[in-house]
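Q: Hi! First time doing this. I have a protein sequence and I read that you can turn it into a structure. Is that right? Here it is:
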Amino acid sequence: MGGPEHTPDQATPARGEPTRGDPTGGGPTGAEPPPAQGRLARWLRAARRPLRHVLVLFILALVVEYLVVPELVGASKDLYLLGRVGVFWAVAGLVLEAASLFCYAVLTRALLPAPGRPGLVRLFGIDLSAAAVAHVIPAGTIGSAGVGYQLFTSEGLDGTDVGVMMATKGMGSTVVLNVLLWLALVISIPIAGFRPLYGTVAIVGAILLAAIAALVVGFTRGGRRAARIVRAVGDKIPRVGGDRLEKIVLQASDSLRGLATDRRVLVSSLTWASLNWLLDAASLWCFIAAFGRYTDPVGLFAAYGIANVLGAIPISPAGLGVIDSLTPVLLVSFGLTRSVATLGVLAWRLVNFWLPIPAGAASYVALKVPRGSGWAAMRRAATDLVRRN
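A: Yes, that's right. Below is the predicted 3D structure, encoded as structure tokens:
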């Protein structure tokens, strides 16, 4: 009777009734999720990276099981040919592959503005590091773009210049490959005849070129519209982000227009991009020659180009399984025996696909770790590269 009266705002809640601001149910706006939903959201965020890695491993297992293993089983019947390998041609193939990768670094150098540009050796190391990432994850171009962008900008390069260079290099290389392939097909059709696969390749190539043309027009004539489109792509690129990529696109339209009018840079870029593809195909020719067969270069490039165009579809890392299984089939159609075609392609892919992975990882560590830093710093850099992907 003598105690203070309780106003409605001061009323003690009944047992079991949530208090004001109670996160389990009664907040004024209900902004806080229930504990079960909060735990689920935290679990999903924590599990996203492991689930992605499991999915990547599952896709790789499918590729290896259904595309690579059958080729290896078929090649195992002809392992006696390894005793007849021409060492000179094998070494020549290795040297030509290294030269192809080096030409890609020179292409990078040609597309970067001269002020503040790193040396060619460091550019080669950055490209090799990005290639290592692209060779281990599906749709690896996205992951390698993030690593490459971070490494280029850490060298003091402007982010816009880096973005323009990477976009131009990727699109330009694709255009050059398709043009070289079509030239090879035009020459090979009268000699070896028309094949139904040519139609599929023509369609895929036309789609790629149309997409590139749309991007170029979007960059140069509708920068803001293109920026909104690539913003969603940028959100999926580690260490880049949609906001930053959108800013790059908005600033890149003038740079692309200037690049198109700079004849010296244009000719240099087309030359180095062409050499990158031609030397890679020449490496394949040498590895086939190492097994005693000297195939027609035009037919070989037609097979090489078809496999690389179809391998560009983001199903597996850098066309793993697609290029390995399709190239021997096409080479057989151009007159090679199955055993020589399979072993030659597998030897070429050893230096074309697998060797850049450890070489690129070593390049990444060398770029990130100063001399004399010790093994602990090297391990941290290697762990950082793995964690990024």
